[in-house]
């Protein structure tokens, strides 16, 4: 997926955790093989060319496409699985793959799991007694600085996903035009319990722009967000303060 993944696993029976970690890593490699838009032999590429049907692909393909269709519905088309007329669900694949990896490891019984995929993070459980997971959000306008620190205090599941132009440039596409999104935002960070959805909502809100994106994010249940504009203005959903720390 063209990025770095890291794992932080606390507690649990070492052999069981190691086996689950190996399975999770293998699952991430397999997701890349199946869903890569850069590999001509991936199932997604072959599906897009009409060489395979969804039924002939791995079951995960139908699952991801169904999730992507739901994201498109909820976002009223601002999240899309189409790019330049070609099937491309990569906007959901990384979040889905990271969340799946975290849950696979958590099933082995550790006290806490954190999986970071290119800055998008899924945490489960806790890192220690009385200690919550904490996730730093990079400041897109000040390299090396943090815009906020988010805490999972009081929650056993927390996901943090950021979409923006600081790291990868203008890579988010406006589905209405098929061109790079013209937006006053430089980043949108979404906090939820599921990285699959947090990843989608961050992408959609970034394409919408600050005003419409914030309004829409406020309408989503169980979702908080931090939006930063090119003018260094910070906008937050009403409940984000409860997650700062």
Total beta-strand segments: 13
- The shape, in one word, is globular
Low-pLDDT parts are none
> How much helix, percentage-wise, in residues?
25-40%
Which range does the strand content fall in?
A: 25-35%
Rg result: 18 Å
**What kind of assembly state do the chains in view correspond to?**
single chain
Q: Which structural category do the helix and sheet elements fall into?
A: alpha+beta
User: Which strand order does the major sheet show?
Assistant: 1-4-5-8-11-12-13
End-to-end gap: 30 Å
Please give the largest β-sheet. 7 strands, antiparallel
- Number of helical regions: 6
Description of the molecule:
- With 245 residues, the chain is of the alpha+beta class.
- It contains 6 helices and 13 strands.
- The radius of gyration is 18 Å and the shape is globular.
- The mean pLDDT is 92.
What are the SSEs and their pairings?
Blueprint: E1 5-10, H1 14-35, H2 43-48, H3 59-74, E2 82-83, E3 86-87, H4 90-106, E4 112-117, E5 120-125, E6 134-138, E7 146-151, E8 157-164, E9 173-174, E10 179-180, E11 185-192, H5 195-208, H6 210-218, E12 224-229, E13 234-236
Antiparallel strand pairs: 1-4, 2-3, 4-5, 5-8, 6-7, 8-11, 9-10, 11-12, 12-13
Brief digest:
The chain is an alpha+beta fold.
Q: Which key terms come to mind for this protein?
A:
two-stranded antiparallel ribbon; alpha+beta; 13 strands; seven-stranded antiparallel sheet; about 240 residues; single chain
């Amino acid at each position: 997926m063209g990025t770095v993944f890291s794992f932080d696993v606390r507690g649990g029976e070492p052999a069981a955790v190691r086996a689950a970690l190996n399975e999770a890593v293998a699952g991430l490699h397999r997701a890349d093989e199946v869903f890569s838009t850069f590999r001509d032999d991936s199932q997604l590429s072959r599906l897009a060319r009409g060489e395979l049907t969804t039924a002939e692909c791995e079951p995960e393909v139908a699952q991801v496409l169904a999730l992507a269709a739901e994201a498109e519905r909820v976002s009223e088309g601002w999240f899309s699985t189409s790019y330049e007329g070609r099937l491309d669900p990569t906007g959901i694949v990384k979040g889905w793959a990271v969340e799946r990896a975290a849950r696979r490891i958590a099933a082995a019984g550790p006290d806490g799991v954190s999986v970071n995929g290119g800055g998008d993070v899924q945490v489960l459980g806790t890192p220690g007694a009385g200690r919550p997971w904490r996730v730093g959000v990079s400041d897109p306008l000040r390299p090396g600085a943090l815009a906020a620190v988010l805490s999972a205090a009081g929650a056993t599941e927390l996901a943090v996903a950021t979409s923006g132009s600081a790291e990868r440039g203008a890579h988010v596409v406006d589905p209405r035009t098929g061109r790079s999104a013209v937006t006053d935002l430089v980043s949108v960070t979404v906090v939820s319990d599921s990285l699959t959805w947090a990843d989608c909502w961050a992408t959609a809100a970034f394409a919408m722009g600050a005003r419409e994106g914030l309004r829409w994010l406020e309408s989503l249940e169980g979702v908080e967000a931090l939006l930063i504009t090119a003018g260094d203005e910070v906008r937050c959903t009403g409940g984000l303060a409860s997650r700062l720390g």
